[in-house]
């Protein structure tokens, strides 16, 4: 019996998925996308509210229990990606299905390969500042919620439901991760976050998405600079 051939998860596969994500995201008018996302956020406000209770608990536990931190933070990343992918399947948000399915697989792969760890004593001030900013606005995402936005976003912004707050939270954890890191996971998450951040600002009027752009660029530059240093030292 012939052995099954496994398809490696390489840059070519990820690049093809990202190209497909972009292509599909441009097939609908921005007004239609905006209306759809607003309706999903309204329909799942109860679920988002429940995540707003669980998420800070997991975050605090991870901060005060160093021996469980990697399991808790990696588990939170995987859950958020899977949650957003599942919501996207239910509501047929194809770009989000592609993005979050890829991120979920890469998070699991990085964890199993020992490429996802969180030793906060080894993080720099910039890592902690940008990571904290991303986690804050992932939890308190000031869009797709009813007025008063500042208050309702604190209670039930669409974390784990829609792409932008979910990507911010995932990237926040990645900012706090320590070597050895998965460059493929980090660059994929950074690329998706940068794309949706620019898309949200330009087409959907979600100006809070400037935070996505900042966080994505920080992760990308940090990863590429580390890769350049490693290459120079080889």
What can you see in these coordinates?
- The structure is a single chain.
- The chain is mainly alpha-helical and 234 residues long.
- It is 75% helix and 0% strand.
- The protein is built from ten helices and no strands.
- The radius of gyration is 17 Å and the shape is globular.
- The relative contact order is 0.13.
Q: What structural class do the secondary elements suggest?
A: mainly alpha
Mean pLDDT: 94
What's the Cα radius of gyration?
17 Å
Largest sheet: none
Order of helices and strands: HHHHHHHHHH
How far the N terminus sits from the C terminus, by CA atoms, comes to: 43 Å
Give the strand content. under 5%
- Counting DSSP H or I runs of 4 or more residues, the number of helices is 10
Helix proportion range: over 70%
Total beta strands: 0
Unreliable stretches covering 5 or more consecutive residues: 1-7
